[in-house]
Amino acid sequence: MNPLLILTFVAAALAAPFDDDDKIVGGYNCEENSVPYQVSLNSGYHFCGGSLINEQWVVSAGHCYKSRIQVRLGEHNIEVLEGNEQFINAAKIIRHPQYDRKTLNNDIMLIKLSSRAVINARVSTISLPTAPPATGTKCLISGWGNTASSGADYPDELQCLDAPVLSQAKCEASYPGKITSNMFCVGFLEGG
């Protein structure tokens, strides 16, 4: 698996200056266990996703910060207890110190798990990238975000979408004055 895929999750969070961008429009139900690093952040309900980067750390978006988080690993259908999930409380939550809630600059956080995740067929890690992805790189976006282009339709099953990294120029043209040097865009200009 391409280590740059971890950037797709972070990219969706970093280049999302509008509430409308938590969407996975035009995606498909992920094959079960096909995204074993995907986690659900829960505080009595699913509210954000993240990626397991080693047995004890998760990366997520800074705008997903809550003081208490339960990390759910091995999830596919977030409304069904499928039997192989691991529910681990956050021991420490570190949002980027320069996170800006208005501009979403530095929209990233780390979550330290209170115990190590058990790595198996349903739960695995993904490596952090060593360089930014090139324009046009195909990325896998996954999560339980809104699948409706208008209105709201939040799926129970994990959704996937294959989408390209956009050029910085196209990204900035789509979000004039909103994109910083810490952001990049993944997706399609016509939606998705």
UniProtKB/TrEMBL annotation:
Keyword annotations: Disulfide bond, Hydrolase, Protease, Serine protease, Signal
Signal peptide from the UniProt entry: 1-15
GO molecular function (one): serine-type endopeptidase activity
PROSITE patterns given in the database record: TRYPSIN_DOM (PS50240), TRYPSIN_HIS (PS00134)
Record-annotated Peptidase S1 domain positions: 24-192
Domain of life: Eukaryota
SMART domains in the record: Tryp_SPc (SM00020)
Entry keyword annotation includes Nucleotide-binding: no
Xref: Gene3D superfamilies: Trypsin-like serine proteases
GO biological process, one term: proteolysis
SUPFAM superfamilies: Trypsin-like serine proteases (SSF50494)
Protein name in the entry: Serine protease 1
Species assigned in the record: Homo sapiens (Human)
Lineage: Eukaryota, Metazoa, Chordata, Craniata, Vertebrata
Name of the coding gene: PRSS1
